[in-house]
Amino acid sequence: MAKKAKESAEERLIARYFRPLAKHPGAFGLADDAAAIAPPAGCDLVLTTDGVIAGVHFLPDDAPRDVARKALRMNLSDLAAKGAAPLGFLLSLALPVKTKASWIAGFAAGLADDSEHYACPLLGGDTDHTVGPIMASITAFGAVPRGKMVRRSTAKPGDVVVVTGTIGDAALGVKLRRKKSLGKSWRLKPKMTSHLLRRYLLPEPRNALAEAVLHHASAAMDISDGLAGDLGKLCRASAVAATIDVMRVPLSEAAQAAIASARDLWQTVLTGGDDYEIILTLPPDRLSAFRAAAARAGIAATEIGRIEKGEGARFECHGKPLAYKRASYSHF
Amino acid sequence: MAKKAKESAEERLIARYFRPLAKHPGAFGLADDAAAIAPPAGCDLVLTTDGVIAGVHFLPDDAPRDVARKALRMNLSDLAAKGAAPLGFLLSLALPVKTKASWIAGFAAGLADDSEHYACPLLGGDTDHTVGPIMASITAFGAVPRGKMVRRSTAKPGDVVVVTGTIGDAALGVKLRRKKSLGKSWRLKPKMTSHLLRRYLLPEPRNALAEAVLHHASAAMDISDGLAGDLGKLCRASAVAATIDVMRVPLSEAAQAAIASARDLWQTVLTGGDDYEIILTLPPDRLSAFRAAAARAGIAATEIGRIEKGEGARFECHGKPLAYKRASYSHF
């Protein structure tokens, strides 16, 4: 042919925005069809995948920087709950034709920040045009000592139930995001409103606790679909029951204020999604060591209940069972 | 709470349709947040991700069974071209709320067939509702001896250029799919038409040749965006030139017939996408061993040109350079 074959627009997009994030040698500078990695000696590779779709998991006017960070953090949260140290991630990005370069630049910048912060380099990916909304799907890789991935299915009667951080902030945050006037009816101070909005926009995955989870937890998972529903899943997988003291569920100052004004929000807090905290079970004699590790990491770790024989997760308030309509956010 | 927490609709969907495909012990029966695998001793894990979107990569009335198989095979093709043996895959599925159970059942059935056939079990995944079209994104994992992944960037002057199978069938197939009357103007016999349609609908990844690629190729990639453009990428990555004899590019009987009726289709054949054949470069003394391996696998392997010093992929016809408008299908 007469003309020299030039880089395609897709190659240019990748080179410009994403190659700087591909610092792992096995990413081959994103110039190959595949990446190659090996887990550290004696380790398994932990695999998890999660994604965000505009209009479903984020709002179209969310900053692209935060969308990218949320998508990566959702996956980092899974790795943390499994006791795994991040190794890297693949990105699959579907963009409408009309997506602005500034959106892509912002998205890549957010991804670069968190990729650096969490030591989780980009390994490869796939970009496509779509006739639908923006979608970013991430597959993240972590390492755990062989056979030691912390599972959902290994909680034992007698274990204590612990959650990290605070519960329900993001579920309140998305309500505020959709209806700003709620801040007033919940009598929130401005900084409380921004706390809840922030918690929805940007999860804080507990990767600093992954090693403590690995060493001390009998079972764990991250809370992404609501405390009640996700604890129910853990109980089903482990064939155990749990009794939770609702009064011990850790709430932020903002969530406490909102509930004080609108008691029904208890249900939102316990069953709403997007917490990205870890729920874990521990033999009682491991509790103090785990708490010490959490304190060192500056992350709250709160005992909220106990694993028992039986089935189902029971939430009690002053010894009486609490009733709510729906246990969990479900996509189906 | 009063009622026992029940499985969510999402959990039921996964259990019913996808758990039967999760035969790898590290998939934990899809009952955990993550999977855990280890590459065989002395091996790297090869990672690749590719997906399909309704209206972009497949047509909304394609059979769900074939959509699933195409999505998996696109990834298997990448593994084959990198010399990797499949280990398993993750599936990320975004479905409109109105998706029928029969569509999901068909999709899962197709995935089950190919997962079994290619010994590539489901390891985990993510299902979501979307406000856009159906999207299935797959991340596939393979194994190669440590440091031996076959790259794009390692072709050397003096190497011969080989392609597997036949080129351009799928690009002609999608034209036929979109405008049925073309079969008549191209004077195709009915079985030629069905051959081309089939080649678009369902790639035939060359995993049976992965080991021969690993042992003999100096560089390789799969052809998904057209022979001309993908060879251009290989040349750029390797900092070499290639001269291809167009008359040696292997064509199916159907593609030959179509070109005989409409000479311009040459361009479609060389630059259209979806071939899912392998283009590889080999030192000349490896050619006969590779050909023997291909013959044993029942897959055509055709020498089409030579790697040289310089840059760019040149296509020649009877010694004269061939001109065409666009080197490659690009999503951007």
How would you summarize this macromolecular structure in one to three sentences?
The structure is a homodimer of 332-residue chains. Chain A has 332 residues and is α+β, with helices and mostly antiparallel strands.
What topology does this entry show?
The structure is a homodimer of 332-residue chains.
Chain A (H helix, E strand, L loop, with lengths): L8 H10 L16 E3 L5 E11 L10 H18 L3 E12 L4 H17 L4 E9 L4 E11 L14 E5 L4 H10 L3 H4 L4 H12 L8 H7 L2 E5 L3 H12 L2 E5 L7 H9 L3 H7 L5 E6 L4 H11 L3 E8 L3 E6 L2 E2 L11
Parallel strand pairs in A: 3-4, 8-11
Antiparallel strand pairs in A: 2-5, 3-5, 6-9, 6-10, 7-9, 8-10, 11-12
Helix pairs in contact in A: 2-3, 4-6, 6-9
CATH architecture of the largest domain in chain A: Alpha-Beta Complex
Question: Can you tell me the CATH topology of the largest domain in chain A?
Answer: Phosphoribosyl-aminoimidazole Synthetase, Chain A, domain 2
Which stretches of chain A of 5+ consecutive residues score pLDDT under 50? Answer: 1-5
Largest interface: A-B, 93 and 93 residues
> What is the name of the CATH class of the largest domain in chain A?
Alpha Beta
Q: How far do the termini of chain A sit from each other?
A: 52 Å
Residue-averaged pLDDT of chain A: 93
Biggest sheet layout of chain A: 7 strands, mixed
